[in-house]
Design brief:
With about 350 residues, the protein is α/β, with parallel strands linked by helices. Helices cover about 40% and strands about 20% of the residues. It folds into two domains: about 240 residues, Dihydropteroate synthase-like (TIM Barrel, Alpha-Beta Barrel), CATH 3.20.20; about 90 residues, Sulfite Reductase Hemoprotein, domain 1 (2-Layer Sandwich). The two termini are about 40 Å apart.
């Protein structure tokens, strides 16, 4: 089922599913009971474009912290629960908007029923979150592909939720293996009517994560699969949000973001393109400027290669030309290049 056809659910004031919009999620890197640090991180991520944030619930202190955190943030909060279903109950009572249950380590039906009844009462969404590091024990040793283990783990817990007439469900089936992740989500999109939260788990540090996540998630996004996304990075949460925006934008799913084009440079390049490009892109991104901008190193091919850009700049020996839609409008010195380009960009906003 494509994202435009999935069942809708409300997470706080946000609607998930049934639309061609992919919501951005990240996860706090601090212990949840460290309220001041967590609130700061959530609000920074929200400012960057996060639609919701997840926090881990390791102990009772974490579960109790939900109440105070909720008072100081504006976006929906998700509690990540493993092993102990009582923490899910405490988190719901303290005002969390959504919980994540791992079918690999929370499988007691009586406890799940208790969670479901409270979630229904409080209008809390439940994500059934299977991942490659923790699948249901009965499927763990089966001689079947990992994608099928993930699917069966999720299916079993979904059936329990449905048994108690609970349908505000989100499903995730994350692996660190790209092919297994793609296969799992493609199977899930055929089986479930519920929104899918997509991601590559344990994807590594920034550079590796961006490559793995793009390789694994772009095919799904372009197929119309995925209602929410997280780029998992061994690093700060803010980088996860920005990486998700960039990926969604390039897949045509995030409009309020710049399209930036720059050449890789070569032996023809006679100006220092790299710092200029970095500075221009930062300005575009920081100001959410919805334009296509090119920074090119060759004055011969620059306007041609960048002709699809709304505006661009191409370098020659110690100078640049600024062009709009491939047509040169002025020449500037290398020292003037940044300020002159920004002035032209601002004139188009």
């Amino acid at each position: 089922m494509k994202r435009t056809e999935t069942r809708q659910a409300k997470i706080g004031r946000i609607t998930i599913g049934g639309q061609n919009k992919v919501l951005i999620q990240s996860m706090c890197k601090h212990k949840t009971s460290h309220i001041e640090e967590v609130v700061k991180e959530i609000n920074e991520c929200a400012k960057l474009g996060a639609d919701m944030m997840r926090v881990s619930i390791l102990d009772e202190e974490d579960a109790q912290a939900i109440k105070e955190i909720k008072k100081q943030i504006k976006i929906p909060l998700i509690a990540d629960i493993h092993f102990n279903g009582d923490f899910a109950i405490q988190a719901i009572k303290n005002g969390v908007d959504k919980i994540r249950l791992n079918p690999g380590n929370i499988s007691d039906e009586a406890k799940i029923k208790e969670i479901v009844e409270l979630a229904k009462k409080k209008h809390v969404v439940i994500r059934v979150g299977a991942n490659s590091g923790s699948v249901s024990q009965e499927f763990a040793d089966a001689d079947i592909p990992l994608a099928h283990k993930l699917l069966l783990s999720a299916k079993k817990q979904v059936q329990i939720l449905e048994k108690y007439d609970f349908h505000d469900i989100v499903i995730s089936l994350k692996a660190s293996n790209i092919r297994e992740t793609i296969n799992a989500y493609e199977l899930a999109s055929e089986l479930f009517p519920y929104p899918l939260h997509i991601g590559i788990t344990e994807a590594g540090p920034y550079d590796l994560s961006v490559i793995r996540s793009t390789a694994g998630l772009a095919p799904l996004l372009l197929e119309g699969i995925g209602d929410t996304i997280r780029i998992s990075i061994t690093g700060d949460a803010q980088s996860e949000v920005v990486a998700a925006k960039r990926l969604l934008h390039d897949c045509g799913l995030y409009e309020n973001y710049p399209t930036f084009i720059s050449c890789p440079t070569c032996g023809r390049t006679q100006v220092d393109v790299k710092p200029l490009g970095a500075k221009v892109f930062k300005y575009l991104e920081d100001n959410s400027i919805k334009l296509t901008v090119a920074v090119m190193g060759c004055i011969v091919n620059g306007p041609g290669e960048g002709k699809s850009a709304d505006i661009g700049i191409a370098g020659g020996k110690g100078q640049y030309v600024i062009f709009k839609k491939g047509e040169v409008i002025k020449k500037v010195s290398e020292d003037e290049a940044y300020d002159a380009l920004i002035k032209e960009i601002d004139s188009l906003r």
